[in-house]
Write a structure and sequence with these properties.
18% strand, 8-stranded mixed β-sheet, 5-stranded mixed β-sheet, elongated, alpha+beta
């Protein structure tokens, strides 16, 4: 993951590899989406030309990003954007508020194409302090060069109105649009409105609040919107002390409440601590030979840019930091500050500091900036986890692909066997014969596609007859196109089982469209229709191991189902010994109650509802007498 993939370039391949942006296939992009963390943060979409398409925020990065690809969007703009996405980048935050603010800063800096509201020509809203006597504070969509002050833009209207609500709850700001000139006030053209009576305004329209006192409020609000909260809080603390000294306890209480509200506001909305105004933060996390570096650019106490680098080869901390800083110098140049904060010990950075002139300071646990370092560590760990999962997925898929290629080679298959089905029968001297069909897709079990079959018993136990039944039932729908035919069909058995299955497939007209083989248990030999000689593979051959896995899975599934059927049959037979209870009635009882114990504990009314009055009375009397005799 990286903030700006186009700016990542290899610096020195002798000791590290920087993750370089490349156009991704849809398959790789899908894998990347599946590895996104389920945490709040900001995501960025890039196109093949390495341009930022869109910056957005999310409470859950995994759900939000994947929602773009999992549903059909109604608006053309979003559909066009999704088609262009070639790379996804993200930054994890502690909470949704931080994601809101970070998204806002990044959009201001990069101005992505699809973040503009093209449909109605609107832009993101601003908070405007009007250039007028007793200024109003209003949300606006467009800047007008009339001398007013504009703060924003805010990418979330919710954030803007939260700030505006906080201002109106803690300051006496007018909401009317009256022309409050000195002449109009002196002429008493106005009278107090409802806002004055509910103590939301001090009625400057009738001279009950001076312009100096009103402007003092506006100055406080400017500091609030600029993020300079600490000086403002100190100033209010001094005013509160003075009010107490003057015995003006009502004013002191009002100032106390305002200070508490400002501190709460600061805690909710600060992306970083206010101990530093301008600085660079570099956080490094190393796990084995893999390393990730997260960079934050702090301006005016807020994160305005974020980058993450991934290194896959073993390197020292000094080399890793040197490579990252070199990339940042190339991209940002003179805009980088001399002061850097990091979690790397100073002795690793002495040479880098001497070369660049930067001052690197390791942040201690008790330092206020450690919260920012923790945020960087969280992002770096998220990168490492994503790369680890992608590597594991790639390794597994590569291994599966090699196995299928080997199987295609040894069996001389016309195509790669992406869809394989295997059959096995199970019975006890012809009692309750069943069969199982297991399905492997791309070399892995597809358990949702497994099927089991109850077979018609024969006069004498006949494995071949049972196999013919299940093959016919399984592949008859393939003749009508209701089910796809696998590239490879495997039978658990010898040459006779192979011929029995081939006879059915030939009668259905499907034998020429698939490959049929059987694998015998004792010698682990493979029988094919194309050769009279059995195929014997090495015990360590990966193709043989896959066939053994198929055979064992089919055998286990058939055996489990057969045991279940036999148990069910025994339970049913224990009921059919009761006069008047036949197999169908027993089957209905098990369908309703599920077990002998539940049937025995059922009330007469429940039994009547299940099987009728006459049979229910016989059954209830039988169990009732049984309990009485045991007592």
């Amino acid at each position: 993951m990286s903030q700006q993939p186009d700016s990542l370039k290899e610096k020195d391949t002798r000791f590290f590899t920087i993750f370089v942006f490349l156009p991704l296939t849809m398959d790789t992009l899908t894998q990347q989406r599946k590895q996104l963390p389920k945490q709040p943060g900001v995501y960025r979409f890039y196109n093949e030309k390495r341009q930022i398409l869109y910056i957005g925020k999310a409470r859950n990065l995994y759900k939000r990003v994947n929602s773009y690809f999992s549903k059909q969007h109604n608006d053309i703009k979003t559909r066009q954007m999704v088609k262009q996405i070639a790379y996804i980048d993200y930054t994890v935050t502690n909470n949704e508020i931080e994601a809101y603010l970070l998204e806002n800063q990044l959009i201001i800096q990069y101005q992505p194409k699809y973040n503009v509201l093209l449909k109605d020509g609107k832009t993101y809203p601003y908070l405007c302090i009007k250039n007028e006597p007793f200024p109003r504070i209003l949300p606006v969509r467009k800047k007008i060069p009339d001398g007013s002050l504009y703060y924003g833009p805010y990418t979330s209207a919710t954030t803007l109105y939260q700030i505006l609500r906080f201002i109106r709850q803690n300051y006496f700001i007018r909401t009317c649009n009256l022309a409050l000139t000195k002449e109009n006030i002196a002429k008493k053209k106005f009278r107090p409105c409802l806002e004055y009576h509910i103590k939301k305004c001090k009625a400057p329209c009738v001279g009950l609040m001076s312009e100096e006192a009103y402007d003092a409020q506006i100055e406080e609000i400017k500091q609030l919107l600029e993020g300079n909260l600490d000086p403002l809080i100190e100033q209010l603390e001094e005013q509160k002390r003075k009010a107490v000294e003057d015995w003006n306890f009502e004013e002191a209480n009002h100032l106390k409440n305002r200070i508490a509200q400002l501190r709460a506001y600061k805690e909710r909305h600060a992306v970083v601590v206010a101990e530093v105004d301008h600085a660079e933060v570099l956080t490094l996390v190393q796990e084995g030979t893999w390393s990730a570096i997260c960079y934050f650019q702090i301006r005016h106490g807020a994160i305005v840019a974020t980058r993450t680098f991934f290194y896959s080869k073993e390197a020292s901390l000094a080399e890793l930091c040197s490579a990252a800083v070199a990339t940042l110098i190339e991209d940002y140049g003179d805009r980088l500050q001399k002061q850097w904060f990091t979690n790397v010990a100073a002795h690793h950075l002495e040479e880098l500091a001497a070369f660049t002139g930067f001052c690197f300071k390791q942040v201690a646990l008790d330092d206020g900036l450690y919260r920012v370092i923790q945020l960087g560590i969280m992002n770096a760990k998220a990168v490492l986890e994503e790369k680890r999962n992608l590597a594991r997925l790639h390794q597994r898929k590569t291994g599966d692909w090699e196995v299928l290629k080997r199987l295609q080679h040894v069996l001389a298959l016309p195509q790669l066997p992406l869809h394989i089905e295997c059959f096995d029968n199970s019975h006890l001297q012809g009692d309750e014969p069943v069969a199982a069909c297991v399905v492997f897709r791309e070399g892995k079990p597809a358990k949702r596609d497994y099927r089991v079959y109850c077979l018609e018993p024969t006069e004498q136990p006949d494995d071949y007859a049972y196999l013919r039944q299940v093959i016919y039932r399984r592949y008859l729908p393939c003749c009508e196109g209701e089910r796809s035919l696998p590239e490879l069909i495997v039978i658990d058995g010898g040459k006779g089982h192979l011929n029995a299955a081939a006879e059915v497939l030939r009668s259905l007209g499907l034998l020429q469209n698939t490959t049929l083989i059987s694998i015998a248990k004792r010698l682990e030999v493979i029988y094919r229709l194309s050769s009279s000689e059995p195929l014997l593979l090495s015990k360590n051959d990966i193709a043989l191991k896959l066939l053994q896995q198929l055979r064992n899975e089919a055998h286990k599934t058939a055996l489990q189902f057969h045991r279940k059927r036999r148990l069910h049959q025994r339970l049913q037979s224990s009921l059919t010994r009761i006069p008047g209870i036949g197999p169908k009635t027993a089957q209905r009882l098990f369908a309703v109650f599920g077990s002998i114990e539940a049937i025995r504990e059922a009330t007469l009314t429940e039994l009547i509802q299940a099987i009728g009055t006459a049979k229910a009375k016989r059954l209830w009397e039988y169990f009732h007498r049984e309990r009485s005799s045991k007592a």
